[in-house]
Amino acid sequence: MSDINLGRVVLGGLVAGLVVNVGETILNVGLVGTGMEEALRARNLPPVAGGAIGGFVILTFVLGLVTIWLYAAIRPRFGPGPRTAAIAALAVWFLAYLHQSAAMALMGFLPAGVMTLGSVWGFVEIVAGAIAGAAVYKE
Hints:
single chain, mainly alpha, elongated
């Protein structure tokens, strides 16, 4: 068993993070932006802007790094390739997307439809990001 190539984890993680950030931009600006703004306004909260958006972008790149690190960690057991990347993405999706979306919907913080779309969209984007980042990763 070889060591994890941290340089390639960073490179692949940045690629994965870029894919997910593009997906998040499409989702949050184009698809659920109005619903999110309405939900925030109904709770007397300000719209998401500047600093929060910057924080989300950085956290999404960190999510990409974690996803590719997990891919590299499980690769010796499951083998290299898209299937293993999808397995890593599924674990990250459950912990970072599904769990939080379900919690927000159950608390009534955001509409269930917005959270469902976000979870499904998130699954697609994290799998796509993981596959793209895994393509860059080499031992």
